[in-house]
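Hello forum,

I keep getting stuck at the same step: I have a sequence, I want structure tokens, and every attempt I make locally crashes halfway through. Rather than fight my setup again tonight, could one of you with a working pipeline run this one for me? It's a single chain of 382 residues.
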Amino acid sequence: MKKVYFDNAATTELRKEVVHTMTNVLKTEYGNPSSTHSYGRSSKSLLESCRKDIAKLLNASPSEIIFTSGGTEADNLIINSCVCDLGVERIITSRIEHHAVLHTVENLQQTKEIEVAYVSVNVDGTLDFGHLESLLQHSSKATLVSLMHINNEIGTILPLKETAKLCKKYGAFFHSDTVQSVGHYPLDFSEIPIDFAVGAAHKFHGPKGIGFAYVRKNMPIQPLIHGGGQERGLRAGTEAVYAIAGMTEALKIAIQNLNHEEEYILSLKEYFKQELLREIPGVTFNGNCANSSASSYTLLNIGLPITSEKGLMLTFQMDLKGIACSQGSACQSGSNVGSHVLQALLLKGETQKPSIRFSFSSFNTKEEVDYVVSVLKEFVTN
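Reply #2:
Ran it on my machine without issues. Output:
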């Protein structure tokens, strides 16, 4: 059976160079970085070298990079610390954030009685900036704004620098979940006045279970996980040096090849869009994902002209044909709850329309696009 992987927004294939790097580190750098003997010092040296490399790629200071288990932990660390350590009493976010942010905010609302305000979402998936400014204007409480850079379901791009400047204008802290943009878009944290950001290696062809929090220097936050004094006291636990080395290698390659791979992946997305429009009359595109100048080049979220009953079999049929894709967000797989992102921007009747997300990488080909379109066409018409 033909196998096609079009679920790169969920996770990505490891690059062979990353596997090679990690294997070498597993074999040779097995000392605990906190140990003072030569084995530990060697691992510690590699660990700090990786921190410096990642910071350089993001134009940040090494002290601003805190290694975590991934984006979810980093989001939790930042948002909880803003409330517990920075005196934040109010959080502004949106209904289309990743659940790593939404559920953390909801928990703080319940347990700490934090005031929460949601920025209005336009029908194309963009945020209402007038409403955001109004929310910032009309409160004197210490405020955190938490808005993702690239939406993981519909690809909407937040103007990061403009948002950061607006937050600074009104004295609010600004955190962005940048999991879908690190390694796919150039990020310069010396130019963007952002306070907090996050990354996850498995989104840019690195290993799962490793990521980082970017915390702008002189932010007096405290750890979420307590224990030893690793990560400058902000994240206890022995560091996974081999995974950190793999993430660093993956990010180096991603940024080195960024322009070339963006051009190639965008051509695949455009080809996929045109083939869908040609072969499946009535197909629609959710949010503004079909507008490549206003959305991520890495994904398409499509609505199919089929009944909701038939749509229940959509991802199952794709899987039977060897196609990996996502109905809603992968982090909701196994749940009967529909996509909270689509519910936030589609009209009530439109939320019943079966939707499916295809997300691409440089490992994909036009031949794979042709195969997926043929399978979709057969499913829709039969």
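The two ends are 21 Å apart (CA to CA). If your local run keeps crashing, start a new thread with the error log.
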